[in-house]
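FW: tagging you since you asked about this chain on Friday. Here's the raw sequence from the shared folder, copied in full. Didn't touch anything.
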Amino acid sequence: MNTLRRFNGVRWESCVAWLAALLLAGFWTGCRPRDGAGKQEDQNIRTGKTYLDAGLYDEAEKAFQRALQNNINSAEAHWQLGVFYYQDRIDYVGALYHLSRYAKLPQAKNRDHVNRMMEICRQEIAKGMPLTSIDRDQRSKIEHLERTNASLRTEIERLRQATLATTASPTRPGGEGSTPPPRETVTPRDASRPPPSTPGQLVTRGAVGSPQRTHRIRAGETFHSVARDHQLDPQRVIAANPSIDPHNLQIGQVIRLPNP
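HL: got it, structure written out here
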């Protein structure tokens, strides 16, 4: 009986010892890093850098992605992809994703520089956002400003047209700022002469006692208009005044009128 108990005790203790050894071995094996995966990750990153230097961007992107497949938390792979999308692809969404993943890892360096790059990515992404992605309050403010700007442009154009019209229109007589019309200069009538028989017409006597008709020039009159008013030939009126320039008549000037 004691022999059986000792046998059973030895057997039970041996089983417990072997079981503990197996569990410990399995735990240690699972916790140790896989050297092969790490080497493969480093090789993919080196390959990606080589492709970048050669300008083979598609191949470089694939190599960095393979490094992430081997280790999703590879700081170097996230950093290379973040810079690649930021500088070479100009893909700010992709750059922001990988840079943010890199910044969360304990191996991350130059966090201030990384944060500035991420802020630039956010700003560039916001520039390309459609209006519908902005919240309703901000969208209504933008629309209000656009309407205000359009109204101001219309008012400015209206004022400009009104100013041009005022500058181009003639000044009304008697209005504010208007220039008074020139006053006619009338030569004092000789008292020895009889008054004219008709407005603007003077009557004098010639050397032989026959009446010599004359006319005092009024504003806007010419030899032709005077001749027409008196039913005379303009050429005869001009011939009767050889000393007077027909193109430079003066208000109040006296001209001779030939007999009809």
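FW: The first helix runs from residue 2 to 31.
HL: agreed, and The chain is about 60% helix and 5% strand.
FW: great, closing this out.
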